[in-house]
Design goal:
This protein is mostly helical. It has one domain: MetI-like (MetI-like fold, Orthogonal Bundle). It is built from ten helices and no strands.
């Protein structure tokens, strides 16, 4: 859990950011930079109509599906590449290609090949996130302590017990790192996928607001989405990272 002092500093940073926004909006044109009050009233109006929650829910669902798929496949592949050299040598060129392939290209190709479907969007997002998960988990697997593996073999530990008590505790910090970097990447890619080819979601709404030059609506959906990400970061990702570091602290 965060310390009280860190909570105060985080709140202070948000207050300063809000104050700077208010001051800047006071001197800027309303059509260019709406004030915090105007954006807040827009958020309230969208929430009352139910539209805000509908689009936030659609985006969150895509994030969860794509992230789960990418982490599952990427975790297994990264572990195998870290353990088996032949698999690593075979898959490494493909991994390099995926790491350097722009997300926009992957999304466009998915839509061209599979159509403007939900499956194409989820697959494109997962493929874009996949290589970062593979790289992180591969490095984590390479860092596993061989002495602990030898101990597990000497005591003839079953594979399930070895995975739970020997391998996963060592991989926990890498899983936490992959989770944080993965979520931050997936959020961004989902908005692009929605902007290009989905009929709902925060990215779709941002695209509509851009076309209408409705800055209040654009800010309303952008900030609502940012608040959701901040909430998940605080309640899920940070506790996960803190828990993953406990094993290292006790081992030391």
């Amino acid at each position: 859990m965060p310390e009280p002092e860190s909570d105060v500093l985080r709140a202070l940073a948000l207050v300063l950011l809000l104050f700077a926004w208010w001051i800047t909006a006071h001197f800027a044109a309303t059509t260019t930079l709406p004030s915090p009050l105007v954006v807040f009233l827009t958020i309230v109006a969208e929430a009352r109509s139910g539209t805000l929650f509908l689009h936030l829910g659609a985006t969150l669902g895509r994030v969860i599906l794509a992230f789960t798929l990418a982490m599952t496949v990427g975790g297994v592949l990264g572990y195998l590449m870290g353990r088996v050299k032949r698999i690593d040598h075979f898959a490494d060129p493909l991994l390099i290609v995926l790491l350097n392939l722009p997300a926009l290209v992957v999304i466009v190709l998915a839509y061209v090949w599979a159509g403007l479907t939900e499956t194409a969007a989820i697959a494109a997002i997962a493929i874009t996130k996949l290589p970062t998960a593979v790289v992180t988990l591969r490095e984590g697997t390479r860092a596993l302590d061989p002495a602990l593996d030898d101990m597990a073999r000497v005591f003839a530990m079953p594979r399930g017990m070895r995975l739970r008590h020997v391998i996963l505790p060592q991989l926990a910090p890498f899983l936490a790192a992959a989770t944080r970097s993965g979520l931050s990447l997936v959020w961004k890619i989902v908005l692009v996928a929605e902007l290009l080819g989905r009929p709902n979601g925060v990215g779709f709404q941002i695209g509509v607001a851009f076309q209408l030059f409705d800055m209040a609506r654009l800010f309303a959906y952008s900030l609502s989405f940012a608040a959701l990400v901040f909430l998940l970061e605080t309640l899920l990702v940070q506790p996960l990272e803190a828990h993953s570091r406990r094993w290292r602290l006790h081992a030391a």
